[in-house]
C-alpha cells in the first residue's frame, strides 16, 4: 500500500528529502506522495522514513485508495532502481 500525506501536514519539509524513491513533492497546499513511486521504503529500510521523521502523529498514513502487497512494493522498488531480483 502506498502512503498518503493528510491535511494535518504542516509543510515542515522533513519528509521530502528523506524519501529514497523521490516520491514526495510539494502539491498545491501540502506535500503529496506519488503512489507510482512509493514503496513504503521496501528495498531501502524496515519502516517508511517519511513517517519516522514527520513531527505530527498520524499525518502520513496508508493510502486506502492504493492497496498493494509486499510483493508489489518490492516489484516497484526493483523497477525504480533497476535491481536484479
From TrEMBL:
Source organism of this protein record: Erwinia aeris
Regions annotated as coiled coil: none
PROSITE patterns per the UniProt record, alphabetical: 4FE4S_FER_1, 4FE4S_FER_2
Pfam families found in the cross-reference section: Fer4_7
Superkingdom field: Bacteria
The protein's name in its UniProt record: YfhL family 4Fe-4S dicluster ferredoxin
InterPro entries: 4Fe4S_Fe-S-bd, 4Fe4S_Fe_S_CS, YfhL-like
Residue ranges of domain 4Fe-4S ferredoxin-type in the record: 1-29
Keywords: Iron, Iron-sulfur, Metal-binding
Amino acid at each position: 500500500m502506498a502512503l498518503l500525506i493528510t491535511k494535518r501536514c504542516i509543510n515542515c519539509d522533513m519528509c521530502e528529502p528523506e524519501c529514497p524513491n523521490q516520491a514526495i513533492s510539494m502539491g498545491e497546499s501540502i506535500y503529496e506522495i506519488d503512489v507510482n513511486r512509493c514503496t513504503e521504503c521496501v528495498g531501502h529500510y524496515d519502516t517508511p522514513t517519511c513517517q519516522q521523521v514527520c513531527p505530527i502523529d498520524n499525518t502520513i498514513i496508508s493510502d486506502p485508495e492504493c492497496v498493494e502487497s509486499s510483493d508489489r512494493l518490492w516489484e516497484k522498488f526493483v523497477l525504480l532502481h533497476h535491481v536484479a531480483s
